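Pasting two entries for a bug report.
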Amino acid sequence: MRPSLPAQPFLFRISPIYLLLLALPLHTLAQPAQPADSAVLALRFPIADVGQTNLLTDLSDSIWVYKADTRHISIDQLASLPYHRTVRRSDRFVAPSAINKTTVLRFTIANSSDQPAAAYFCPGFLLDSIRLYRLASPPGLAVSVTQRAPTTASPTIIPIPSVLPDDPDSLGYRWLTLGPHDTATFFAVLGFIKASTNTINPTLTGSALIHQAIAINHENGTIIDTFTNLFAGIMLMMIFYAASEYLQSAKPEFLYYIGYSICISLLLFLKSTLHHVTTAFNFFFESFLDNILFSIGYIFYIFFHRKFLDTNRYFKGLDKFLQWGTIGITAFTVAYVAFYYLSDDFRIANTLEDSIKILLLLISVGFIAKGLTYHNRLMNYIVLGNISLCLLSIVSQVMISTNFKPVSGSSVLNLALFYYEVGITIELLFFLFALTYKNKREIILSTQKEEKAKLETERKEMEKQVAVLAAKQDERNRISVDMHDELGSGVTAIRLMSEIVKSKMKNTTLPEIEKISNSANDLLTKMNTIIWTMTSSNDTIENLIAYIRSYAVEFFENTSIDCIFSMPASIPAREISGEKRRNLFLSVKEALNNVVKHSQSSVVRINVIVQDRMIIEIQDDGVGIDLEKLRKFGNGLNNMKKRMASINGEFQVENRQGTRTTFYLTL
């Protein structure tokens, strides 16, 4: 039996909405029959009075039914067929086995008025073939009111022209007329569309009221249409939302969700708007299109779950299960289309349709069972949504099967379809929770990825800088070696030769020779300083302090000033660049020169402190420095200030029992 609404994958959703819609015609069948005219109660079966027909007069008590085993019935056989009364509820539903066969209805109506009467006969819904015939008596023979047919001659069967109402929804109605005080027996030869929702629900409506009757037939008789349309609107909003997500992220799962939402919302909308509509499109929808929308929609839905949960990466076993499930649904759907169009026996196509629903049920159970084994928050959201819909679908199924009413009156809580749609809404909420969680997780992962890429870029840049620095260090070492080996040996040779010349000249030493010797000594000292600065192995605080101490002791050795050098007993192993070493040393060297030239002191104290920064204090006991009389652009002090500023250091000169020069360098 075809569900009226599609079953969601991964849940028990086989037929609650369909069964509800099947139950709707029973509302009409349950209407009390119009009272028969007292003048015709002597007939062997009830007769409806067309002269008193109003809106949707129920003919159920006047109908006799014959269900043929073949598709074609001879007109001559209509009067003699073995009809039976439609007293059973099951007779009003057409089984799939009877779809490709003919069903005949026999009924008698009367006109008790003094004027001709006309009415429209509707045998039921989803019939694509309705042919009416009238039983006429042979000439000169009256119809007995106590017999089902004339007894002395063969009856005459007259075809009735198919006159349809002037209404877009007209295929299910046929026009009948009776003269004043006329009584006639009619035969309706029916053929049904290939659907499992065909019903026999005969009614008669006065011709003047046909448009109102058609409108009443379209109504479900409940407020469920409002909820169905509301749910279809929610699905439409989800289509727009998924479309915007796809445009922003280009993720294919949102395209699959759009396909699923379009199919389901369209199916719900058409089920609501085409209720008891007798048009060619509704016949096509009820017989074929609804199942195609159902199958394609849930193929999209399974693809969406695979992409959304990334089952191919994180849940390989579940991914294989869903993949084979999709193949099975597709195969059954293709087979359904083939047998629908190529076979007259609807039972095969109907069995395939039911097989699709059963397969989806198995996929639902498998998905829930497998999903519960994964400790994954995203999976948990999806599984909880499916479980919620499954439980509410079961409630809907029980209400349909048992006619159970949770509350009294006409409350919406008594509508099985309401629970099904609430289940879909809850599943939609869990999907939104899952989507929010996934987006949040992707933002975090994206941020982490960006940070990792940033760190990787910084690492590469640092490696590049280290490589450049290493190249510079190698170049510095090469230059220092070349200076030591080439220039150093040359300057040393000049100094030695000047000393040899002075020794040979003895008492006639020239002042130029003395200058050459002194210049050579000075140049050799400066060159040694440059070589020390450029050698990368000297780039440590300990080496800097040791070099300053060695230079200071040697510098004051041939002067009248005593040098007292103080430094920490333990010097931390910290590196310092060659540029900082050179500028700090040259600044200290300038300060020591100032002590010798201007301080007139006898003792100089050099104190080195190493903590978060290195502090070098040079304190003499001389005459001090007159800060007011210093030249504004004095070269010595300006040079020290510029050198310390270039290495982010500080320089300070003050009078404190002599002159104190302090250098600060942050390590």
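Entry 2 (this is the one that rendered wrong in the viewer):
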Amino acid sequence: MLRCKSMKRTDYCGALTKAKVDQDVLLQGWVHRRRDHGGLIFIDLRDREGIVQVVFNPQQSQEIHERAHSLRSEYVLEVAGKVRPRPSGTENRELSTGEIEVHAANLTILNPSLTPPFAIEDENEPAESLRLKYRYLDLRRRSVQQNFILRHHLSRAVRRFLDQNGFLEIETPFLTKSTPEGARDFLVPSRLNAGAFYALPQSPQLFKQILMVSGFDRYYQIVRCFRDEDLRADRQPEFTQIDIEMSFIDREDILSLMEEMVGEIIFQAKGVRVESSFSRLTYREAMDRYGVDKPDLRFGLELKDLSDVAAGAEFKVFREAVEKKGRVKAINAKGLATLSRKDLEELTQEATGRGAKGLAWMKVTAEGMEAPITKFFKPEMLQEIGRRMEAVPGDLLLFVADKEKVVYEVLGHLRLVIAKRLNLIDPKALKLLWVTDFPLLEFDETEKRYVAMHHPFTAPMDEDVPLLTTDPLRARAKAYDIVLNGTEIGGGSIRIHRSDVQSKIFELLGIKKEEAESKFGFLLEALQYGAPPHGGIAFGFDRMTAILAGADSIRDVIAFPKTQKGICLMTNAPSDVDSKQLKDLHIKKTEA
């Protein structure tokens, strides 16, 4: 039971039980509802732990009864009274306090309230813009508060687990050096150093590596990070991550310990046991089978390669895609052969919206394949397609032929669209997956240079180090992502701990020696003073909490989030500042 030690209040409203019957209590909270039943007035008094019914009887005190008559929603009260069992037949089984009520002996109105712009007790969701403008009211809603209680339980479980496994919580700076590799930095002008800027950290990556060089061995931090990037449901300009680093370990050590940690915190927060050993896919396997590097394993609908069959067909679109070193792949939308022409057009729009030139299809019937394009395929080709797709009458086969990247993008998206349409996703299931063996580098066609797929401090696989000289794009990284229900909730790698290898990676990324020294000189120097092998991982704490809470957006699990334009509707930040402040910071504004 929750206790309110050294406070005037004796109990939380929602924590009262039958054990308190005939005891005097003093409660504090908000009026959730008021009901006037002739002589008796009932209010539901609410605090963060829940609701309890309070009864005002005119026979007990006319003055208190009249005061209760003036109460309205969201008035803040202090109520003294005695806990009584509810009369037989009036119990509310939907409330944890539904078998008891408090008979008021005294009432103090601590503060009245204006009429709220939306009903706190209403189950209907107010418009998000209204919720964010009046966030202090939105946060009173039980469903919203439950998200933050869950978040607290998760962070507590993380700290407990890491403490038990020898980790030290160490804070790293918020005002640091700009190292623009990845998202844009938020810059902070320095008043004491004219024309110079700090950057808010996108992650504590470099500092935690320095801590490993410093001999701290096992570090963690639940830390705020900042990225000036375009926003969406799972992104905010400021976010929280569980940041972890270890020395003298290899990849298997990290994966094993993190499986244990994730399993433990899910159990502590949700009471659910997940598999002790998570599924694993290499990056290439994930892309080939699901079209994405963060597949949702709660359902099947795997991609099947038909490029070899398509190469021999007379269908020009398929044949030319293969000739241009592209791919032809398909998914089997089980039981959707009954889709109308309009439905198929909508699926085609989904495909073209993701970059495809079109979407081909075949309906599977008892007589065989049915579609306008079947005339371009020999009977044995259609049979082979049906065999590979494990097709039975009633199925719908969907094909995309294009560059490999487009094929994956389109079919990976259609897979989710169809799974939702077929109700294949169990909302209560928790499917965890490690994706490993990512490419170390990608080639940026716009900038015409190599870029790090994760970040430039990721170590290459030992056997792939020679490829850094001969064929860099084939080199694999000692990197790993953890995926929960199709969302990446964390990622990490074994780091480069040798200065010469780190310099080689900078060279491949087009970072010249002088630039590397300017941006990362302190790290390169530190790596020359006995840096141990080390690696780590960072979990997106907001994303993880949102999934476990069943929330649609991380905004639902961040106390004071920003809109998709990066605005706080409650405070109206960002906003103009006084010209004197700008002068002190040696800044002049220009017209936009």
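Dev reply: Rendering is fixed now. As a check, the viewer should reflect this: Residues 142-164 form the longest helix (23 residues).
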